[in-house]
Amino acid sequence: MAIPTSVYAEMTPNPAVMKFVADRPLIEGGYQAELRSQAEATLCSPLAAELFNFPFVTGIFISGHFVSVTKDESLGWEMIVQQLREYIREWLMENPIAVDTAAFEKVMEQLAKPDLLDAKPSASSNVAFLDESEMLPSEYDDEIKHLLDEFVRPAVEQDGGAIDFKAFKEGKVYVHMRGACSGCPSSMQTLKGGIEQLLTSKLDAVEEVVALGV
C-alpha cells in the first residue's frame, strides 16, 4: 500500500545544492547522514543509494524531514528539479525507511573520519586541518555546543546543511560544515559574520571560528 507523501523543492544558498522537504521524517534519532558516494549510501540509506544512480548527483545529506542533493555542473537545476522531486516523492510512497538508523549507527564513525584524518593542507586560507589527536576536550566545549545548538543549528538546517563542533584549541573553535553548507560560496561569510561574532560575543575565550577542510 502506498504511503501518502508530499515533497517540495527548496533552493539553498549553495547553488550546487537543492533541498527536498517531505511531510514525514526521513531519519530518526536526531541523526544527520552525509553520504558522499553510492558505496557509503549502500551501507545505510536505500534512498541515497537510489539517488546516486542519477549521474549528476555527487552528494546526499539527510536530516529530519529533508534530503539535500548536491549535483555537478553538467545540468542546471531548472532541467532536473521537478524530475528529482517527483522521483523522491514516489520512492518515499513505496518505501517506509529512507535511512536504516541501526546500520547508520554501526558505520557512523567510518563515515565521519576520512574527511578530517586524510585531508591534506591546501593553499586556501578559508579552511584548516586538525588531526584527531589534537581534538582534546576543553572546559568550554559544553557552552560552545549549547550556543551552536540554540542559535546556529536551526538556521543552518533551514538552509539544508549542518554544523558540527569538533574542538576548541588556543582560542579557536573548529567546526565542520556539512550538507548545503559544504562548499557554499557564502559559507565563509556565515562562519565569520554570524557564527564567529556570536561565539566571541558570548565567550571571552573564543577568538576565532575556523572551518575544518574536507
SSE map:
Blueprint: E1 7-11, E2 17-22, E3 32-35, H1 38-44, H2 46-51, E4 57-63, E5 66-71, H3 77-94, H4 101-112, H5 114-117, E6 127-128, H6 141-158, E7 161-169, E8 172-179, H7 187-202, E9 208-212
Parallel strand pairs: 6-9, 8-9
Antiparallel strand pairs: 1-2, 2-5, 3-4, 4-5, 7-8
Number of self-contained structural domains: 2
Helix content: 25-40%
Strand order of the largest sheet: 1-2-5-4-3
Contiguous low-pLDDT stretches (5 residues minimum) are 114-126
What is the C-alpha radius of gyration, as a whole number of Å?
18 Å
Distance between the termini: 41 Å
Number of helices: 7
Q: From N to C, what is the helix and strand string?
A: EEEHHEEHHHEHEEHE
CATH architectural type of the largest domain: 2-Layer Sandwich
Major sheet: size, sense and barrel closure?
5 strands, antiparallel
CATH superfamily of the largest domain: Scaffold protein Nfu/NifU, N-terminal domain
CATH-defined fold name of the largest domain: Ribosomal Protein S8, Chain: A, domain 1
The chain-level mean pLDDT equals 84
- What form results from the Cα inertia axes? globular
Total strands: the figure is 9
Could you name the key traits of this structure?
214 residues, alpha+beta, Ribosomal Protein S8, Chain: A, domain 1, GMP Synthetase, Chain A, domain 3, 2 domains, five-stranded antiparallel β-sheet, four-stranded mixed β-sheet, 38% helix, globular
In a nutshell, what does this entry contain?
By secondary structure, the chain is α+β, with helices and mostly antiparallel strands. It has helices spanning 38-44, 46-51, 77-94, 101-112, 114-117, 141-158, 187-202, and strands spanning 7-11, 17-22, 32-35, 57-63, 66-71, 127-128, 161-169, 172-179, 208-212. The protein has a five-stranded antiparallel beta sheet with strand order 1-2-5-4-3. It has a four-stranded mixed beta sheet with strand order 6-9-8-7.
